Amino acid sequence: MRDEDKRRIGEELEPGDRPKAPGRLALLQRFVNTHNHDFPADWDRLGDARQANAWLAKAGLGTIATDDEARRLRAFREALRAVLVGRAADLAPVEVRIEIDADGRTRLEPVAGGADGVIAAVLGILHEAQLTGDWARMKGCRQCEYAFYDRSKNRSAAWCSMAICGNRTKNRAYYRRQHP
């Protein structure tokens, strides 16, 4: 795969051509996938304030002012990734307000701007997905920890792509059995 195609992974492309998560949950998925640990660190879409603002503007999540705020967003992203792969994570508290639309549906909205606002917006999406039941299908790949939406009937998907991470895992297991 060419580098320009690899750079599109997480935005326009998904490993194994999986469809993105439904609705607003796709934005949370894209946020977690702003960096893939298999790629160079300078490809991180939240690497510094300039890179983060470019991605945040495209995603409609606001802006940040400093590289320290970009660092906070990266730490939050990794905490979300940890949750998706089943590890404990410490999410820093942020303020949200509850808004009620004309149909009586509630929605968590950020109180502040900057990194706190972005974090609150993403947490609002997570809360909404928990209420709809879609959160149960969000997973992190066992191999690369890439966030994906499990559309399998029995919710048993374990890898972002069977052809990539599933194959790596199975090949390693085969090698260990053949070379004890």
From TrEMBL:
<dbReference type="Pfam" id="PF11706">
    <property type="entry name" value="zf-CGNR"/>
</dbReference>
<dbReference type="InterPro" id="IPR010852">
    <property type="entry name" value="ABATE"/>
</dbReference>
<dbReference type="InterPro" id="IPR021005">
    <property type="entry name" value="Znf_CGNR"/>
</dbReference>
<dbReference type="Pfam" id="PF07336">
    <property type="entry name" value="ABATE"/>
</dbReference>
<feature type="region of interest" description="Disordered">
    <location>
        <begin position="1"/>
        <end position="20"/>
    </location>
</feature>
<dbReference type="InterPro" id="IPR023286">
    <property type="entry name" value="ABATE_dom_sf"/>
</dbReference>
<feature type="domain" description="Zinc finger CGNR">
    <location>
        <begin position="137"/>
        <end position="178"/>
    </location>
</feature>
<protein>
    <submittedName>
        <fullName>CGNR zinc finger domain-containing protein</fullName>
    </submittedName>
</protein>
